[in-house]
Amino acid sequence: MVGLEKLLIPVKESDLTLEKIVQYLPAIMSTFQANANKIADNYEEYKGEHSAVLNKVRQYEDETVNNQVIMQNLWAMVNFKCGYEFGKPISFSAKSDNNAEMEVFNRYMTSVEFNKIMNNVAEWIFAGGVGYTFTLPAKSPDLNYYAPFESYYLRADRCAKVYSSYLAEKPLFDLIVTPISKLVNKDLIDYYILSVYTKDAYYEFEFNTTLNSLNSEPIRQETRGAYSMLPLVEFCAYADKISIVESCKSSQDALDNLISCGVDNVEETANQLLIFRNCSLGETEEDKRETLANAKKFGALEIFDNGKDIEAEVKTLTTIINHSDTNVLINYILGQMYGNWGVPLASSSVSSGNITQAGGEVANGWQNAFSVAQKELSNILPSIKQLLSQYFAICKQIGDCPIQTLNENDMEIKPTIARSENLLTKTQAFTNLVEHNVPYATAWETCELSGDANAIGSAIDEREKYINSQKADNIGASESQQKITQNI
Known about the structure:
Elements: E1 7-9, H1 18-47, H2 51-54, H3 73-86, E2 91-94, H4 99-111, H5 114-128, E3 131-137, E4 149-154, E5 159-164, E6 171-184, E7 187-197, E8 201-207, E9 220-223, E10 232-235, H6 244-269, E11 273-277, E12 279-280, H7 285-298, E13 304-305, E14 313-317, H8 324-340, H9 357-396, E15 411-414, H10 423-435, H11 440-446, H12 453-487
Parallel strand pairs: 1-5
Antiparallel strand pairs: 2-15, 3-4, 3-10, 5-6, 6-7, 7-8, 8-9, 11-14, 12-13
């Protein structure tokens, strides 16, 4: 199947027990392992382990010429998406006027390195199809500056959420697989710890490299405390959890193969062949090799005819390789890969708003990037909201925590997408709009110069009010000084 299979069991949230978990665990882990293998394979492909070209074999040609060229398009596409959508800090603002708690909240986001977490989650989303964060309460040395929770991203091939197959498919529990090595009879044995989090309990199971060894009973179980939310939050850009790597793998394999075979052809046929006619290079093979080596070294070749009527002669045979058709195919494949995922292709053409074909293509690439990013973020933002609900729930369980009234529904989540293409045209348009008394926030949003136009517009308005008030004060002071002077 395309994407990743959702882990579903026919159990309602109200009926979930340890017995039910144990009953369905083998089936759950079988599906989990299939998903984990796919995620791990895709992540390795993204990192540069392109299995198709690395296993390339030439069966009907000279096997000594077998170039394996890895084109890092998948790496470039995934990293562009991470940088474009999550490279700049996500900003938060409260819909209600609660500046004191927002200041503390922003310090908490800094203390847990929230932007770093989201950038790593994005890497797993676009490389593997899904990303996860893990959050639990933690001790804070100073609640005014440090969050009372710990939050991390996890490898997407080592965790999952299990859902009910009943209507609404509510989450039932979380799985985290941790590889461990233990010493048995002086030998290190690899095995795994399976951690299961429900809303009110925690269980640990143990198994080795085969799922058949999975314990039917947990080796450890605990009742969870007052905080009863599931610790994992699942992030995906598409409902079927498809990744850039899975979607583009066949195209990437084709590119690698075309480039590799092209290098093979150059190596095999681009060199000139020397044809010797009616002449001798030497009596033995060693003499002939020495003659050719000296010719290359000194740039000249002395030949002797064989005493026949035909004059001694040396000719060259050169094969010219035409790559024009191959380049057209490569560009077509690249265009499909990058365009489908909203990644502008690098181009030597630079558009600053002039209506040219090259400029139009570049501008359209960036507009497509923005449109695709908006769609992906619309699927990711609910997960960020869910993550914030975990943070606020933990804060409100601590009596002396400064955050007690903020909640996830009160927050505006504003990813900052860098939209710097055609900057000259946009700034000119912005100036024209402002000169015609269009509000700053409206002009900023119309020209698509920021992901948070209202905040920037408000800041500009406040700045203008301050400047105008300073001018008024200066005028008042000047008039007073003039009156004093006149009276004197």
